[in-house]
Automatic annotation (TrEMBL):
<dbReference type="InterPro" id="IPR036396">
    <property type="entry name" value="Cyt_P450_sf"/>
</dbReference>
<dbReference type="InterPro" id="IPR001128">
    <property type="entry name" value="Cyt_P450"/>
</dbReference>
<keyword id="KW-0349">Heme</keyword>
<keyword id="KW-0503">Monooxygenase</keyword>
<dbReference type="InterPro" id="IPR017972">
    <property type="entry name" value="Cyt_P450_CS"/>
</dbReference>
<comment type="similarity">
    <text>Belongs to the cytochrome P450 family.</text>
</comment>
<dbReference type="InterPro" id="IPR002397">
    <property type="entry name" value="Cyt_P450_B"/>
</dbReference>
<keyword id="KW-0479">Metal-binding</keyword>
<keyword id="KW-0560">Oxidoreductase</keyword>
<keyword id="KW-0408">Iron</keyword>
<protein>
    <submittedName>
        <fullName>Cytochrome P450</fullName>
    </submittedName>
</protein>
<dbReference type="Pfam" id="PF00067">
    <property type="entry name" value="p450"/>
</dbReference>
Length: 406
């Protein structure tokens, strides 16, 4: 049986009627066609998974790889570069085995919960300053531009030892790497060449004059254990962390605040009980209906998922957001329960490739929420929730702006 026999092939990503609401098709797919054929922006077909157990299985299964530049892999976008997941640079970091474990060991030391806890006061100070600036500029204000975007950029720039003054360039370079349909090939090629040159120069500077940042320490540690990371691996690591470290969290801050203010009772509940901040962040991550493309994987050999045999060469899209609404795992899955526990959501993936920076993202989201509740208890949306507009044309999901008043 091939996936979705007799079913209409849906265009993917699947649009929804409102920026904070899931597409109606998710529930129907989970119930009737959990292994579905979809057509990507490139015109190629892939297989979409929407059930929790299937998504978790694939994310943990080493047969499903990141080899998205294979000859028979589906192209995600119609650009030759294929976007973030399919660039040559994306393939530099080892995908599996000892090489991958070693890379995660070296880089993961910088993203432990303990290290993030030590960064909390610095993050809180940054948030305070950004909110001061937002208040001075007056209302309504775009919370995404004033707080959601700059805070994660400052933090990741600090970790990598790159100047935060270059943040607008990073944002543009990131967007071209995250392209689905927004940019043309010439624009992408030029931006990626600039990004690679910038990061290559930065790595060379750190080799010549190391300081107390992540890249300097990676150079020192990987050289010391005899299995040094090459300059191209360091370059790819720096680019990956810069893109992942600000783009997704910047968007998530905006979406989290949007969700909490869309129903003012949620915000009031947090004002009444600040101990709910941590579980509220987890629930916002689970409840996020606009996370972007999902996690693509390439199948190098035949495998069975959800009772369907997938042939070698299948490109699978794991929709973690659809899986996070699976009623068989989450009671009241379509309700936002700020005290939900346990909450085994898949927003950060699962298995060996789960998000390396999840402790960083969680800490940033918690700090932002704590400071906003303290500083702006009267915060509210300046537009109707249904008028919030989603980011289009990129691999990541987000809101274009989050207009608020207080």
């Amino acid at each position: 049986m091939s996936p979705g026999d007799g079913e209409q092939v849906l265009s993917y990503p699947i649009p929804s009627e409102a920026a904070l609401e899931p597409p109606a098709e998710w529930a129907a797919l989970r119930q009737r066609c959990p292994v579905a054929r979809v057509k990507l922006p490139s015109g190629d077909e892939a297989t979409l998974l929407t059930r929790y157990d299937d998504v978790k299985q694939v994310l943990a299964d080493p047969r499903f790889t990141r080899l998205l530049n294979a000859d028979d892999a589906a192209r995600l976008s119609d650009n030759e570069s294929g976007g973030l997941f399919s660039t040559d640079m994306a393939q530099v970091i080892p995908d599996s085995g000892e090489g991958h474990q070693r890379w995660r060991r070296l880089v993961g030391k910088w993203f432990t919960a303990k290290r993030m806890a030590a960064l909390r006061p610095v993050m809180a100070e940054m948030a305070e300053q950004l909110i001061d600036d937002m208040i001075k500029r007056g209302q309504p204000a775009d919370l995404k531009a004033c707080l959601g975007f700059p805070l994660p950029v400052y933090v990741i720039c600090d970790l990598l030892g790159v100047p935060a003054a270059d943040r607008d360039r990073f944002a543009y370079w990131s967007d071209t790497l995250l392209n689905l349909t927004r940019y043309g090939q010439t624009e992408i090629d030029e931006a990626q060449a600039e990004f690679i040159q910038y990061m290559a120069d930065h790595v060379a500077d750190k080799r010549a004059q190391p300081s107390e940042d992540l890249l300097s320490e990676l150079i020192k540690e990987s050289d010391a254990d005899g299995g040094r990371l090459s300059d191209v691996e360091l370059l790819a690591t720096g680019m990956a962390l810069l893109v992942a470290g600000h783009e997704t969290t910047a968007n998530m801050i905006g979406k989290m605040v949007g969700m909490l203010l869309a129903d003012r009772a949620r915000w009031e509940r947090l004002l009444a009980d600040r101990s709910l901040v941590r579980s509220a962040v987890e629930e916002a991550l689970r409840f996020d209906a606009n996370p972007g493309f999902g996690m693509p994987r390439y199948l190098g050999e035949e495998a069975e998922v959800g009772g369907t045999v997938l042939p070698r060469g299948t490109t699978v899209i794991c929709s973690m957001a659809a899986a996070n609404r699976d009623e068989s795992v989450f009671d009241g899955a379509d309700e936002m329960d700020l005290g939900r526990s346990p909450n085994p959501h898949l927003a950060f993936g699962s298995g060996a490739h789960s998000c390396l920076g999840q402790a960083l993202a969680r800490t940033e989201l918690q700090v932002v929420l704590e400071v906003l509740l303290r500083r702006l208890p009267s915060l509210e949306l300046a537009v109707a929730a249904e008028d919030l507009r989603r980011v289009d044309g990129l691999v990541v999901g987000g809101l274009r702006e989050v207009l608020v008043r207080w």
